Amino acid sequence: MTVALLSRGHMLIEGPPGTAKTLMAKLFAEVLGLKFKRIQMTPDMIPSDIIGAKIVDPKTGELRTILGPIFANIVLIDEINRASPKTQSALLEAMQERCVTIEGDTYNLPEPFMIIATQNPWESEGVFPLPETQIDRFSLAISLDYPNPEIILGVSPRTSVILLRTAKALAAIRGRKYVIPDDIKYLTPYVLWHRIRLNPRVAGYGTPRENYAKIVNIINEEILRKIRVPW
Q1: How does residue 142 score in pLDDT terms, banded at 50, 70 and 90?
Q2: d(Cα 150, Cα 72) in Å, to the nearest integer?
Q3: Which of 63, 162, 187, 199: disulfide with 150, CB 3.0–4.6 Å?
Q4: Which residues pair with 115 in a beta bridge?
Q5: Digit-coded pLDDT (tens) for 60-77
Q6: Helix (H) or strand (E) holding 148
Q7: Residue 179: left (phi > 0), alpha (psi -120 to 50), or beta?
Q8: Do 192 and 159 contact (CB within 8 A), yes or no?
């Protein structure tokens, strides 16, 4: 989480209920002394529930802007895939531009700003798949439930930029002003795994834990081990 925050990124946490996803995000904000807001996603939510809206003040008759809960430093989007795709799309501008547009007016979000989103496994009932454009906005992803087959890659050019930024942040945390291969090797599974999909005939009837392990093994054995260190 610290790497994602320092690299101006966002984080996705996947896992079933009861794996302390929400607690982890809340404690992270408290330790850093940052303003924290939690948004519980539901199927009936609309974008204004997140970013805010303009209303008419009944006393003065003037139009007032009510800022939504996204105006915080650390925003926990709990169970993001329970919201409809339309509501999920309200987060794209905030994640990319670090601002939101409310009825034509643009408002900057506070700095630092980071979204930590949790999602339930895909096989859970009542969930919507995240669009690829939104998945790509998350710099890092971890799974709290899951510790050479063919794969389907969803890696865009932005991925290499994210890997570089997070590696620089990790190097700074470790007391260095430069990145070393071990930084890249450590972060690559976290940057790549949520962008990789197993071919259905390879995934078969494997559990989410088993499929996650397959992807991480592919990253470590088929990608990282075959890359020659430049020195």
Answers
A1: confident
A2: 41
A3: 199
A4: 75
A5: 888 889 999 999 999 999
A6: none
A7: beta
A8: yes
Q: 41 near 78, Cβ under 8 Å?
A: yes
Closest residue by Cα to residue 52 from 118, 112, 108? 108
Residues 196 and 201: their CA atoms lie apart, in Å, by 15
**pLDDT, position 122:** 58
All structural domains of the chain? 1-145 (3.40.50.300), 146-231 (1.10.8.80)
Q: Do 163 and 187 form a contact (C-beta atoms < 8 A)?
A: yes
List all residues 6 or more positions away from 60 whose beta carbon is below 8 Å from its beta carbon: none
Element (H, E) at 209: helix 208-217
Length of the chain counted residue by residue? 231
Assign 147 a pLDDT band (cuts: 50, 70, 90). Answer: very low
Tokens of 8: 């101006």
Tokens of residue 187, six digits: 């972060």
Q: Which residue has the tokens 């989480």?
A: 1
- Predicted confidence at residue 199, as pLDDT, reads 61
* Spatial CA neighbour of 52 closest among 75, 38, 68: 68
